Protein: F-box domain-containing protein
Organism: Daucus carota subsp. sativus
Amino acid sequence: MVSASKESRRIDRISELPDSLLVNILSLLPIKSAARTSVLSKRWRPLCLYLEKLQFSDRRYSGIKFTNFVDRLLLHKPPGLKMDQLGLYCGNNHCPSRVTDWIQNVVERNLKELELNFRFGKLYELIPDVYICTSLEVLRLVGDILVDPPENVRFSRLRVLEFKKIRVSSCEAVGEILLNCPVLEDLTIDDCVWLDGYCLTIFGPSMKKLSMSFRSWANEEFSLDILIFTPRLETLYIESFVSDDIFIKDNLQFLTTAYIDVKEMIEGAVPSSVFGLLKRINQVKFLDLGFETVEALNSAHNYDPTAVHQGFPLFHNLNKLCLTVSMYCGLTLLDDFLQNSPNLQSLQFPHGLVDFDESSYFSWGFSRVPECLSMHLEKVKIYEFHGTDEEMSLVRYLLEHGSALRKVLIHFSSFWEDPDQVHEVQEELLTYHRESTTCELNISF
């Protein structure tokens, strides 16, 4: 009995599993751990070559060791074997020709997803083979990469395209790429450097998500016209642009979520371009406005409040509104937003209500009780609370007229130093009358 038990323990039942199942098991391991299994026996040695999803990073490898490792798993694959996904993260100065060999090898294997993140310190020009890889569904490019597409771009299956901190030969070149992406759903353009051109056309009949940001150029004199033709768009993120440079062809009827942080070209005037942008997205359900946009609206209100009131768009579908109040911004058009958002359910101030400089003037007056406050507004969240008279007045107003309020969260600023003063403000807040009998007032520090 004992000898039989010992014999059963010697049997390697895992190695008896079929190749397909063993490859599936290896695919669940980090690539380095999966590669180590090749030393177990001859049975395991070739299995890693059949992995269809590979992620390589040189963070823990020397240059030649990393190169040999990738060579072994990519260039030695059996001919005709398909590849689903390749992720390549290189921060060291690997030979560009070797990187080209790796990319060229996988795009010929019916590749579906390619992610390249290079920190070479010099540009790597994306090879033409990538632009004609009709099997690609996801393409993500980050870092020291130059995109200069040929004329015959063919991305017939591409659903996700991401450009982050890369260099692009021209704005028009990206427009040409998008014209050859008929099923593209998700586009991200983040902090890219444009070598030529002044007009970027975002064309996407199937596009659902669009994210554009140019933070690195926020303080530079650069003008880039953005033309957006995306009738099916559901999510929009725009940051660090001038509103005058953005044109949306049609109202975005299917838009659900939007983050807008754009500045007005002429300060202190009625922001016709900001209003034009807001009117194109007025079907949105969740709206987050950054401090640049809020400040532009505030400046316009101070310049001509009547024109602002008359031109303010109606947000009939808006359920959640998030306003970022900058330290230079006092009156943030809260009255206009609430009056024109009759179905608003959630209101947030992630960076507070006012500038804590008490010498500044702030006002949170309302022309009349907004419909949303008396009917639908359920949640209010205020962060960076300083306890100024203007803040206390607004909280009192919301509590006294918020018939539908269920929860009001107030998080005190970290600038508070006197515990007794904090306690005093907290006690005063708790004494305010609440129109809603189910309203819960949460105060945190």
